[in-house]
Amino acid sequence: MRILIVTHAVKKNDGQGRVNYEIVKAALAAGHRVTLLASEAAPELLDHPRVRFVPIAPSRLPSRLLQYQMFAWRSGAWIRAHRDEFDIVHVNGFIAWARADVNAAHFVHDGWYRCGFFPFRLLRGFYQAYQVIYTLLNIVCEKWAFRHAEVIVPVSQRVASEVGALGIDASRMQVIHNGVDVDEFTPGPAERARFGLPEAPFMLLFAGDLRMSRKNLDTVLHALVATPANVHLAVAGILHNSPYPALVQSLGLSGRVHFTDMVMDMPALMRSVDAFVFPSRYEPMGLVLLEALSVGLPVITVRTAGGAEVITSGSGIVLDDPDDAEALTAAIVRLASDPAYARGLGQTARRVAATLSWQAMAERYLAVYAQVYAQRHAQAVPARATASVKL
Questions:
Q1: Nearest Cα to Cα of residue 91 among 20, 27, 18
Q2: pLDDT tens figures, 228-244
Q3: 3-state secondary structure at position 43
Q4: Superfamily of segment(s) 2-179+357-390
Q5: 8 Å CB contact between 247 and 218
Q6: pTM for this one?
Q7: Nearest to 225 by CA among 130, 303, 332, 306
Q8: How far is residue 92's CA from residue 98's CA, in Å, rounded to a whole number?
Q9: Do residues 65 and 113 touch, judged by C-beta distance below 8 A?
Q10: Angle CA(384)–CA(388)–CA(390) in degrees, nearest 5?
């Protein structure tokens, strides 16, 4: 097949970019030809003889809203001019003013806006007004993009429900969960000293953006107050402009919460803790959750976190309410007080992750491509036969 993939970046150290990177690798291994319509692509992909890179220069317009619209107009114009050159056009959400065969839905702005935790208000200053306008415009654009695609691929059941709320029929959707590098994120020896962590305590890990309330570190900290003193928390994320160090101090947790700032070697940090806590108030599909499963960590998460749907009762604990600190405390205490139970969850978590490798994910996308391709050709045959009869 001749495949066109449209996205801002195709590279390993980027969430959506990594998904597309792995799809390209699998497509090339299967013998397909791939064109990348993007602003950035990994050099190792561009060196391949069956890869064509069509760069869309980043716009210099002020604001991400205008920059993304410019990308959408430029990429849409290019697609319309070259559509006949491709068997499959794969886009990612709203990224081009053009029809597509496959649209991968990684994030749905309407779901974020209506989830109950959207933090911005139109009349609370310029920045918040901009965020509201940006979100509302994206809702309109995403609805258009999903309606102009043959197949929509939500990255979780949560995202699928949000796409459905826009009026898209479930028959047009095929959920494909994001993947994880099961060879990089693998169980192994702890290196706590390397990260400045004490050796003795039961160590939880929280990883995420420390400037965003939706990641819900505040509930983790309030839950930690009610746990035994031998339960500690490692927090990985950029500390600049974060309110959480002050909250830690006010709660009297300074000796039990260890901020590591940004960590480049996340697999090593995950191998150095005992459990992963991820009570995000809103999450389409958390890659970090899959990474924790792959390392073999018992996971505590919540139903509002996309990805929780892959966790079985034997591989983690899924809570109902992200703001229920008492329930979170009870889950933490259960893991910390029962090593055999925690170990069993971790072992099952690793087996669950094995079904969610990047290769498995990419092969599912290729299967969708093949399905769309076959259906188009099946429809074309009767059309050609009818035309021959008329002649």
A1: 20
A2: 999 999 999 999 889 99
A3: helix
A4: Glycogen Phosphorylase B; (3.40.50.2000)
A5: yes
A6: 0.91
A7: 332
A8: 12
A9: no
A10: 120
